[in-house]
Amino acid sequence: MRLGLALPWDGAGVAIPVETVKLAERLGFDSVWTAEAYGSDALTPLAFLAAHTSRIRLGTAVVQLAARTPASTAMAAATIDDLAGGGRTVVGLGVSGPQIVEGWYGQPWGSPVARIRDYVAIMRKILRRDGPVSHDGTEISLPFTGEGATGQGKPLQTILHPDAGLPIWIGCGGPSSVKLTAEIADGWLPMGLTPESWELYEPWIREGLGRAGRSLAEIEIQVGCHVEVADDLETAWARRKKMIGFYVGGMGSKTHNFHKQTMIRRGYPDAADEIQELFLAGRRDEAYAAVPDSYIDDMGLYGDEHRIRRRYQRYVDTPITGLTLQAADPATLELMADIAGLSTGETP
Question: CB of 230 within 8 A of CB of 298?
Answer without folding.
Answer: no
